[in-house]
């Protein structure tokens, strides 16, 4: 697993005191304040970087809004960010995707979540005083971004791309993109450890679903939250040809896109 994308709790514990390591907690503020958090972590709640009004990039907040969030907690573009939640990483993965899209070079997902961290490492309810910074977002050019829109998805349907639906079975059977395979994002998580399954097991699991390095992969769900986790996992495993349909099924249905229904 590529540590430039996903890091273990032990890795974070070892590097936690380094000045350029900045830990971001994306849980609700009451969890951060009342339950505790990773020492030194700053609070950037999930809802603060999700904006339904951004017509160009779906639910992304926009580069200026995101830059303001990071400036307020003292994060700079040169920092290594490690994000976590307490929901197996799915909300934190959305933060990772957002930061990458807005040009942050080094942002990583904590393998596991707060509960996984709490089993072996210290927590605190003390809030740090990180100061402020002048963060400048530098959004990726369209040709560099993994995000794709409606037209690109329509084109990919004409090719041998594998469309990966990361939702639950009932959602998949109600409506899905033509030819899509269902790969529930939670399949990669070990329920006992709350961390990702071993790399060899992940590779076998993906292959069983037809998700291989030799194929073009297009991810979607309903509103692009769950595919953030799958995208980060694939990136950590070294998959390169992975597209991220930000509009997902919500946009597809709004544009009367063709769907399939029923069990497979």
TrEMBL record:
**Membrane spanning stretches:** none
Q: Which GO terms describe its molecular function?
A: transferase activity
CDD domains according to UniProt: TST_Repeat_1
Classify the source by domain of life.
Archaea
* PANTHER family hit by this protein: THIOSULFATE SULFURTRANSFERASE (PTHR43855)
Which classification does the entry list for the species?
Archaea, Methanobacteriati, Methanobacteriota, Stenosarchaea group, Halobacteria
What protein name is recorded for this chain?
Answer: Sulfurtransferase
Q: InterPro entries from the xrefs? A: Rhodanese-like_dom, Rhodanese-like_dom_sf, Thiosulfate_sulfurtransferase
Q: Does the UniProt entry include the keyword Repeat?
A: yes
Query: In this protein, which residues make up the domain named Rhodanese?
Result: 17-126, 157-261
**Which organism does this record belong to?**
Natrarchaeobius halalkaliphilus
Sorted keywords for this record are: Repeat, Transferase
């Amino acid at each position: 697993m590529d540590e430039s994308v996903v890091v273990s709790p032990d890795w974070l514990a070892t590097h936690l005191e380094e000045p350029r390591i900045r830990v971001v907690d994306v849980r609700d503020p009451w969890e951060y304040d009342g339950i505790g958090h990773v020492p030194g972590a700053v609070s950037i709640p999930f809802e603060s970087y999700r904006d339904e009004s951004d017509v160009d990039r779906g639910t992304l907040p926009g580069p200026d809004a995101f830059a303001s969030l990071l400036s307020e907690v003292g994060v700079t573009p040169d920092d290594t960010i490690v994000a976590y939640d307490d929901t197996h990483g799915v909300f934190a993965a959305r933060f990772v995707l957002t930061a990458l899209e807005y040009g942050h070079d080094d942002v990583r997902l904590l393998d596991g979540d707060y509960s996984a961290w709490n089993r072996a490492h210290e927590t605190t309810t003390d809030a740090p005083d990180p100061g402020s910074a002048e963060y400048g977002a530098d959004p990726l050019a369209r040709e560099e971004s993994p995000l794709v829109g409606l037209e690109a998805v329509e084109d990919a349907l004409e090719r041998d791309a594998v469309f990966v639906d990361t939702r639950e079975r009932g959602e998949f059977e109600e409506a899905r993109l033509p030819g899509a395979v269902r790969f529930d994002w939670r399949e990669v998580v070990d329920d006992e450890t709350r961390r990702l399954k071993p790399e060899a097991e992940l590779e076998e699991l993906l292959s069983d679903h037809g998700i291989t390095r030799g194929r073009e992969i297009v991810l979607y769900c309903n509103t692009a939250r769950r595919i953030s986790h799958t995208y980060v996992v694939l990136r950590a495993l070294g998959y390169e040809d992975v597209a991220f349909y930000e509009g997902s099924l919500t946009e597809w249905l709004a544009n009367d896109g063709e769907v399939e229904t029923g069990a497979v």
